[in-house]
Amino acid sequence: MKLAWILWLASILPPQAADSLCLSATLYLEARDQSTQGQQAVAEVALRREDSGLWGDSMCQVVTARKQFAPTIVSPQTRLSNTEAWAQAVTIAIEAEQNWALPDGQRKEIVPGASHFLAHNIASPSWRNAYQVAQIGDHTFLKVQSLRSKRN
């Protein structure tokens, strides 16, 4: 299936299903070749950003914010053809959303405070020297800014 089709489908689904689909597509595109922990960490950054409201009020808005995540960087014609990786991305996305719905003190956080991440082999942004929270696989997770939950 093509990314464009997934994003179109997300536009007509109920909000919760759309957000799960957008997060799944992001995990697939950003981290399908990473460990489960690496994929969970990418999901955590996206969920933390959604929680802040700075990049949008829904997961789909967050991951399609200009030049923030793969859905706006890769071609809309990109095919998500690895069904095994897709199934894993969906599972991790849903589990991450369930974890993030827990109260702050009960969540399992893998990259506490991380607001950004980068893959060294493809990115060298200006903020790459921010506070490093963790390195998991090919990704470095960084606290570039403190994000506050819009729920508080």
Automatic annotation (TrEMBL):
Residues 34-141 form the Cell wall hydrolase SleB domain. Residues 1-17 form the signal peptide. Pfam families: Hydrolase_2. Keywords: Hydrolase, Signal. GO terms for molecular function: hydrolase activity. It comes from the Bacteria. This is Cell Wall Hydrolase. It comes from Solilutibacter tolerans.
